[in-house]
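name: query_chain
kind: protein
chains: 1
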Amino acid sequence: MRKLKLALIFGTLFFAVGFFVSLFLFRDSEGGKVSSQTILTALRERGFLVTQTYVANESVKIENDSEDFWRKLLWGQAIKAYGVVEVNLGVDLSKLEESDIKISKDKITVAIPKVNVFNSRLVGDVSLENKQGLLKRIFENDDGYNQAVSALVNQAEQNILTAEVLTTANDKAVEEIKRLVGYFVEDREVEVVIK
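structure:
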């Protein structure tokens, strides 16, 4: 019984000494400050931050016709397509550099790139009308689907990328970055600027 008490006392003493030595050796010399590298790593892990999603009904007409009546009759093609396209806008946080994050005594400034298109995709089916010339239908039969999808997506992106939409998406990106950085620092103001 005496050996058990002695082992318990030495174990407790050993644990206490180890605890205090580890506090002394491994304490944070910066007092728990967050570095720009910490913030950079956390933001880069987000990858592409989507801040705005738009869904639009689009319609396009594609005419691969020439002015020549016979060529138009034999090889011409006219496509009409209707579809719903989703366009996602956001900020590519993987492109951030350490120089984009400035830390001062009372403020953290993060410089982010401008919002751009992350992806665009067709939602649902495409309604397609395809008129082809006689020889084109026989020798180069093309349903026009790929051309139609490409044209619908391009048109949706052009229609969405207005100054007003980009301003709204940039504002949302700024607010989201402020929120994300705010998780790391509660005692400083967070300012987000667009490069």
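note: The longest strand covers residues 116-132.
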